[in-house]
Design goal:
Strand content: 5-15%
Order of helices and strands: HHEHEHEHHHHHEHHEH
Oligomer: single chain
Largest sheet: 5 strands, parallel
Low-confidence stretches: 8-17, 310-325
Helix content: 40-55%
CATH class of one domain: Alpha Beta
Distance between the termini: 74 Å
Radius of gyration: 22 Å
CATH superfamily of one domain: SGNH hydrolase
CATH architecture of one domain: 3-Layer(aba) Sandwich
CATH topology of one domain: Rossmann fold
Number of strands: 5
């Protein structure tokens, strides 16, 4: 006679199998009937980065030589067309990461794409808020590799099972993928924010005072040393902040000065090129918060960097500006 415990285990296994079958049916059904509404598996539980992985999965032949990586400051300010053609230039940045997480992300990218020879990072105060209490590892690289390599995604949806997020994102992601205020990406992976010019006036600065976390600067030093030790170049851009932020937030000018000096000191002697673009601030109307510009103004920064290298900014039909080895 079967014991109650064995019957319990059998029932539990049947329940798990049933749940997986329902999940698999849901994922397969959405993917077949309305693929634009199927959210990516929540490997990081950050919709922007999970969507970045989905975007990369759809481009299995990428072999980038130039990689932009970092937070939303890189994601939304980097103009890939200044440095080459799609496929050769990749913007791998994502929302909300701190500098130590950027390093983790950069390490994964250069392992996955060994063709990368040049790394570009846009850095601002928001990247340096906290490199101590937040974990650097915000996704499992093995699972991300499997997903990008074409693995059947249902087991990944099951492993990171979040039914509320799956259904909620399925209702909104099709529109978000087409929205310049959502997840829309260009052919380089950049999110070009072409928001109304009155966005800042309506929404405000969003960010308050930020003191750079001193723990972030050694992380930047290590990233620079590791990249150069592997024969890769690192370029850092420090974009200007909204003039209204410096004028309205007490101590912001001193914090920004501390950041700029800290970045330059951290990478001194590593061969890293730092472009301090703080004198190129556009009017406040070209920002949509304290740190992020509308893309027509932001793309000027990339072109300034490209032009400073002794050539003209690349276009889709012109060769990329040579970067230093």
């Amino acid at each position: 006679m079967t014991s109650p415990f064995v019957r319990f285990l059998a029932g539990l296994a049947a329940g798990v199998a049933g749940t997986l079958a329902v999940l698999g049916g849901l994922v397969e059904g959405i993917g077949r009937l309305a693929p634009e509404r199927l959210p990516p598996p929540p490997l990081s539980n950050r919709i922007d980065f999970d969507e970045k992985l989905h975007w990369l999965r759809e481009r299995p032949g990428l072999s980038p030589g130039v990689l932009a990586v970092g937070s939303s400051i890189t994601l939304q300010h980097f103009d890939g067309s200044a440095f080459g053609v799609p496929g050769h230039v990749l913007n791998g940045a994502t929302w909300g990461v701190q500098l130590h997480q950027t390093r983790y992300l950069a390490d994964w990218y250069v392992d996955r794409y060994p063709t990368v020879r040049h790394v570009i990072v846009f850095l601002g105060l928001a990247d340096f808020r906290d490199c101590r209490t937040t974990p650097a590892t915000f996704f499992n690289t093995d699972h991300a590799d499997a997903y990008l390599d074409g693995a059947w995604p249902v087991p990944l949806y099951a492993k990171y099972f979040a039914p509320g997020d799956l259904i909620g994102n399925a209702l909104t992601i099709a529109g978000d993928r087409l929205s310049t205020e959502g997840l829309l990406r260009d052919e380089y992976g950049t999110q070009p924010r072409t928001l109304p010019v009155d966005r800042f006036e309506r929404k405000g600065l969003f960010y308050g005072h930020i003191d750079p976390d001193p723990a972030c600067f050694p992380v930047l030093s290590a990233l620079a040393r590791d990249l150069h030790g592997a024969g890769r170049s690192l370029t850092i851009a420090i974009p200007p902040v909204n003039p209204a932020y410096l004028a309205q937030v007490s101590g912001a000018d001193q914090s920004f000065m501390t950041l700029r000096k800290g970045i330059k000191d951290a990478v001194a002697g590593t061969g890293t090129r730092v472009f301090d673009l703080t004198d190129a601030a556009p009017p406040a109307s070209e920002y949509y918060d304290a740190f992020h510009m509308r893309f027509p103004a932001a793309r000027v920064l990339s072109r300034s960097i490209a032009l400073s290298r002794g050539g003209q900014a690349a276009t889709h039909n012109a060769p990329a500006v040579p970067l230093p080895p």
